[in-house]
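Worked problem 6 (solution included).
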Amino acid sequence: MRVISEKSDGEIKITVFAWNEKILLKFESGMYEQTYKVKEMDISGEGDVTTLLKNAEFIASVRTRFREMHKDFVSKLDL
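Solution. The predicted structure is:
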């Protein structure tokens, strides 16, 4: 697995990997993580990945999903 890029905005760490003819987009926030796998042949290059990571709507949905993950996890601890 090869790291293509890493960046952090303080709340979310984003790491882009190349592995087995796939691009992996790994988002980490606290104790949670989300990973998206895309076949390299389904994108035209790293520019597509950069465009996606700059898409405010996509990043907002990633943030929302982290909040939902935390809410689901915490609610199950209150059994």
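Discussion: The beta strands are 2-8, 13-19, 22-29, 32-39.
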